[in-house]
Design brief:
Tetrahydropterin Synthase, Chain A; 24% helix
Length: 148
């Protein structure tokens, strides 16, 4: 059986602050994130099905990632729930879309959470192969299924 990887890229804007960090990222700041999502599976070879010749319809992958990741995180402020920013962030006149998490909202931790969300939503015949989350043009974190 031929296993093929297919990848789709997504972009979103998000702000965060790193609680307890000893550099400028302790302040609320934003990034233009770029997320690459790669799934692996067999090519459907059944001429009677509309998705013949595909591993996964890119539209289906987009729907999953859009609903579980992009719609929630785009233009949000992600903060550690223990952060002193919490009091200020609860002011709905200043911030409308604030998400409190139980981890330090680094690129590394965020890619782990994104992987968990996507894995649960994929069809049974497919596997999440890897993710690459660019926080800046030159900095990114990667998650690979074989490492986890």
């Amino acid at each position: 059986m031929n296993m093929i990887r297919v990848t789709k890229e997504f972009r979103f804007e998000m702000a965060h602050a790193l609680y307890g960090y000893n550099g400028p990222c302790k302040n609320i700041h934003g990034h233009s994130y770029r997320l690459s999502v790669c799934v692996i599976g067999p090519v459907l070879n059944n001429g009677t099905q509309a998705k013949n010749g595909m591993v996964m319809d890119f539209t289906d992958l987009k729907r999953i990632v859009q609903s579980l990741v992009i719609d929630e995180l785009d233009h949000a402020l992600l903060l550690n729930g223990n952060s002193p920013h919490k009091e200020m962030a609860l002011n709905k006149e200043v911030f409308e879309k604030v998400i409190f998490v139980n981890y330090q909202p680094t690129c590394e931790n965020l890619v782990i959470e994104i992987a968990e969300r996507i894995k649960k939503a994929l069809p049974q015949n497919l596997e999440l192969h890897h993710l690459k989350l660019h926080e800046t043009v030159s900095s990114y974190a990667e998650w690979y299924s074989e490492d986890n």
